[in-house]
Design goal:
With 347 residues, this protein is α/β, with parallel strands linked by helices. The chain is built from 9 helices and 19 strands. The strands form 4 sheets. Strands 3, 5, 6, 10, 11, 18 and 19 form a 7-stranded mixed β-sheet that branches. Helix 4 links the parallel strand 12 and strand 13. Helix 3 packs across helix 4. The two termini are 20 Å apart. The model has no long low-confidence stretch (mean pLDDT 93).
Length: 347
């Protein structure tokens, strides 16, 4: 019998926690697919949504939370082909128009009319079912989709940053990953797989630095007042070619400016709210300073291929559907071991 109602965690008001509600199971329209949800990853962007909404986007609510989504194809909307009922898939949260200049140039993750499911403009996956556009989906073959949920944002955002910057990193280059948490964990692996750079990992946690060593970092630096001097010493005072900042506070952005050599690149993904004074001498000539946003479906497919070839590991901690608030508290308190993934089947 076709389900009429489902459970979903809904954001009803900014500054308030999500509320578990009974809502109608959505019906897929033209070009859409109904997914039976497997897992939804949560990250600090979800905390930002709960606390105040997305900084660069107006409040459009209420909506269902959850932007790192995976599950099984439940129903195909009109005009959809290439997927089978029961097929495991992951879904990029970003849906682009395909018509604007960024989309036409192959950078749909910077679409001028972006829809981000679970963040704004569309319902996400912290529910029993979710709608996705068919061009947001990547098939997983016969894999269990739950463990793949973090790839759709944590890994994809990191891949997008590294893929863009790798042309700035020569064969004997040096790259720095600041913050080896959710996104940095993946960025370090992508630098290792996509470049031949020496990798320096920077973090406040010695435990996370130990993990970075296992993942391929050649040098480990504790993030403190002496970090810049230590990194410059490791590079014979020449500086590094690329910095990936997954913290984004004043101190880490200043660190990036101090250690990046001329013609290098500083990519900031962290949502720490920091600022980088941009004036002559504070940032060397020719350095690109950029904010990076997500990635493309082609890049998401490349990530899945890397995982299935055993090149990239996935770090996650599973929570039941009724444990969402435990997962959010663990995230706020820095008590997670890997990405939190909430399984989307009520007890």
């Amino acid at each position: 019998m076709e389900r009429k109602m489902m459970k979903a965690y809904r954001i009803l008001e900014l500054g308030k926690p999500p509320v578990l509600q009974d809502v109608e199971v959505p019906k897929p329209g033209t070009g859409e697919v109904l997914l039976r949800m497997g897992g939804a990853g949560i990250c600090r962007t979800d905390l930002e949504v709960i606390d105040r909404g997305i900084e660069l986007s107006p409040w459009i609510g209420p909506f269902t939370l959850g932007h790192e989504n995976s599950g099984w194809v439940e129903q195909l909307g009109p005009g959809v082909s290439g997927f089978e009922i029961g097929e495991p898939v992951i879904s990029s949260c970003m849906s682009s128009c395909g018509k604007c200049e960024p989309c036409l140039s192959g950078s749909g993750n910077y679409c001028e009319s972006m829809v981000a499911r679970g963040l704004y403009k569309a319902d996400g996956g912290l529910a029993e079912f979710m709608i996705a556009d068919h061009h947001q989906l990547i098939s997983l073959g016969k894999e269990n989709p739950i463990r793949y949920a973090p790839l759709t944002d944590a890994a994809l955002s990191a891949y997008g940053a590294v893929d863009y910057a790798r042309c700035k990193i020569p064969g004997d280059g040096i790259a720095v990953v600041i913050g080896v948490g959710g996104l940095g964990y993946y960025a370090l692996q992508f630098v290792r797989e996509l470049t031949s750079a020496m990798i320096i990992a920077v973090d406040t946690s010695k435990e996370r630095l130990a993990i970075a060593k296992e993942l391929g970092a050649s040098d480990l630096v504790v993030s403190d007042k002496d970090a810049a001097d230590k990194i410059m010493a490791l590079t014979n005072d020449k500086g590094v070619h690329a910095v990936f900042d997954f913290v984004g506070i004043d101190a880490t952005m200043a660190l990036g400016a101090k250690i990046t050599r001329a013609l290098g690149i500083i990519t900031i993904n962290g949502l720490g709210g920091g600022t980088l004074p941009f004036f002559w001498g504070n940032v060397l000539p020719g350095i690109d300073v950029r904010f990076s946003q997500g990635g493309t479906l082609l890049q998401l497919q490349a990530i899945v291929d890397l995982v299935q070839r055993g090149k990239i590991s996935i770090e996650y901690q599973e929570f039941g559907f009724d444990q969402l608030f435990e997962a959010l508290d663990a995230l706020r308190n820095g008590a997670l071991s890997g990405r939190a993934v909430v399984t989307c089947k009520p007890a």
